[in-house]
Amino acid sequence: MAKPAVIVVGADKGGVGKTTVSRTVLDYFTANNIPTRAFDTEAPRGTLKRFHPEVTEIVDVTTTSDQMKIFDTLNTATANVTVIDVRAGLMSPTLAALRDIGFLDAARSGQITFAVFHILGPSIASLDEIAETASFMDGAKYFLVKNFINNTSFFEWDQATYNSYFKRIKNATEITIPKLNEMAYEQVEVSSVPFLKFVANKGPGDETANYSFVLRGYVRHWLGNVWGEFDRIKLTDIVGSKDKGFARPGDE
Amino acid sequence: MPRTPVYIVCSPRPDVGKTLLSRVLSEFLILQNGSVLAFDINLREPSLLDFLPRTTETASIADTHSQIALMDRLIINDGVAKVIDLGLHAFDDFFQLADEIGFMKEAIRRGVEPVVLFIPDATRTSATAWAMLRKTFPGMNLIAIDNEHVLHGETPKNFEGVTPLHIAALPAFLRSIVQRTNFSFTHYLRTAQDSSSELHQWTRANYTKFRNLEKRLKLQE
Question: Which CATH number do you get for residue A110?
């Protein structure tokens, strides 16, 4: 059996699309037949749980009991992959907690696969976040995610400054999430279904829905591009799956 | 259930006879099937609408709302043939959208048969657009229209080996007749006293070609 894998998706800044990226990751694993469970730290509301209720549990990652719920079950859970959607402001505290409980040491020694998707916002504060987060990344796969889904322009960044931050981190890899048509994004939000179900024209209970063909097409195309990025970083290999990825949205 | 055809009459060039072809085809489909739904996607000057106002709607792909209004109807297998008079200014955007949202593949899956009727001229723009369509939509029904009035019997670059659907040129005096907005080809066929007249033969010949095209599409099913 492959060793357990934990993927943390987070940023200290709010509104940069953490949950959206988590949703695409869950859809990607679903399409590649990789059993996955998710924890939504946005207690009590839980946006991720709204879209993926079957596999998602809402937790307060700052409490010991919920930390136990996540990390003490890594070896016993039926799902080998755990995705944690860390709410705004909790990225650094969560990583500090992981260090304190010895999780980062376990990752460093190769007992656990640990990956961080750090969602970057357009402000210079995001670059400071990189420096802060990087100190925890020894032994982890670190991905810097530029999220353009909400038309972020990253206007505040000076490329040279960004490069100087980027180069400080060994093995950091960039991922680009492209823009999705606004109306398509809104329609998926309203429908409260995973992107994959929206593409397949299914409602929350797998019933046939009546979504616009055009909007479904936009989502399929966009999700295909996002998954292309996950294929590029060999995400299925990272989590130790024998499946080689390359599933596409809308594949029967 | 038989497939519902969606004819896309297009060219990236002006004045090659898109609207004329759309008109003749729409009138043929009404005569043959009793119904047609035509869409006029000319961003600057709607024209098919002027000739066939009862069966034509203006459409656009300029924003998502308009795209939904058009494409979500084209994808329905309702037995009513569709004709799109695609203006040159919308050419690139339409096919880019069709590619992005997977229109051709989804159409086939739902029992809709897209048929692109491409009217080339001798320019490089036309040759490039033809090559783009062949590359982007392999396996799609892509038919070149040899409009004699445009090509004058020449075979343009990139079209060697292609069997086009030939549309004979109309003499100038007949063109001035058919360009009247109240002129109907089918009405003319039914009422003209002289069935040997050039316009009668021209219309009949084109209707026959469309009928053969429909038969060919049915045989493919």
Answer: 3.40.50.300
Domain total of chain A: 1
Does A217 contact B65 at a Cβ distance shorter than 8 Å?
Answer: no
A166: containing domain = 5-180+224-238
CA dihedral A249, A149, A53, A245 (to 10 degrees): 40
Residue identified by tokens 């099937």 is B33
Contact between B205 and B170 (Cβ < 8 Å): no
For residue B83, give the nearest of B21, B1, B152 by alpha carbon.
B21
Which of B6, B60, B64 is the best substitution to test chain A (most A C-beta atoms within 10 A)? B64
Is the CB of residue B180 less than 8 Å away from at least one CB of chain A?
Answer: no
First CA to last CA distance, chain B: 10
pLDDT surpassing 90 at residue B51: yes
Indicate the class that CATH gives domain B4-220. alpha beta
pLDDT for residue B88:
93
Task: Return the number of CB contacts < 8 Å for A and B.
Answer: 39
Reported confidence tier of residue B124, pLDDT bands at 50, 70, 90 = very high
> Is there a domain that residue A248 lies in?
no
Among candidate residues A129, A152, A195, A143, the one with its CA nearest the CA of residue A171: A143
The answer to whether A240 contacts chain B (CB < 8 Å) is: no
Task: Choose the closest CB to B68 out of A182, A215, A221.
Answer: A215
- The whole-angstrom separation of Cα A234 and Cα A225 is 14
Contacts of A217 in chain B (CB under 8 A): 71, 100-103, 106
Give the Cα separation of B122 and B119 in Å (integer): 10
Least CB–CB distance from A218: residue in B65, B72, B101 = B101
Residue B4, C-beta contacts closer than 8 angstroms, at least 6 positions apart: B76, B77, B78, B79, B80, B81, B82, B111, B112, B113
pLDDT above 70 covers a percentage of chain A that reads 88
